[in-house]
Amino acid sequence: MRVLVVEDEPALADALARGLERDGFAVDVAADGIDGLHQARETSYDAIVLDIMLPGLDGLSILRELRGASVWTPILMLTARDADEDITTALDVGADDYLTKPFSLAVLVARLRSLMRRGAPERPAVLAAGDLSLDPATRRCARGGEAVTLTPREFALLEFLMRRAGDVLTKTTILEHVWDEHYDGDANVVEVYVGYLRKKVDVPFQRAAIETVRGAGYRLRPDGG
Ligand code: CA
Questions:
Q1: Does position 88 have pLDDT exceeding 90, yes or no?
Q2: How far is the CA of 92 from the centre of ligand 1 (A)?
Q3: Domain 127-220 falls in which CATH fold?
Q4: Ranges for all domains in the chain classified under CATH 3.40.50.2300
Q5: For the domain bounded by 2-118, which CATH number is listed?
Q6: 0.85 cut: is pTM over it?
Q7: Which residues pair with 77 in a beta bridge?
Q8: Is 105 helix (H, G, I), strand (E, B) or coil?
Q9: Closest of 93, 9, 96 to residue 51, by C-alpha
């Protein structure tokens, strides 16, 4: 099993490498973020131990880059104490586990073995329809590379339309999937939100990704309109 350790503190990196090697792992070490990202992309590892605070490129950016490039290698993040926000972000962006420094090597090895047993399942990639993209992990939406800000409801609606791109979806179906099951208001709320979405992802770009199918519902064009 080959492990990449991305850690800039030489003493810790060294201790990790020696400890993991003693446990039978093959270990590569990267001492900064740029080198870490490069090695993670060039070599197929069974797991990556990734520090968050790194010179060059921080661990969260590396994680985003890797998941964005469909690299699903199990990743265990190392964080400083009191870094709850970093941990939440890391898990949202696709980290598999984390340890807070200082930690015991035995625990790290046990966690790594557990991650490797699970392997590297494919996670939902970024949804795309032409140049319209939506990343459920980072909650980001973009049209032609330009960021589009959506409210949570608009995001949920677009996500549902994009996951079912090409299908004609009735207002009732949309309502069931995007609104709370207890919502008993007017189905025309769908129409209202489709209008909001169009003003954000279609109109400013002179496109028409969201089509109205008369008498039936809506359909998101897989080519982005
Ligand atoms: Ca560090």
A1: no
A2: 21
A3: Arc Repressor Mutant, subunit A (1.10.10)
A4: 2-118
A5: 3.40.50.2300
A6: no
A7: 50, 98
A8: helix
A9: 9
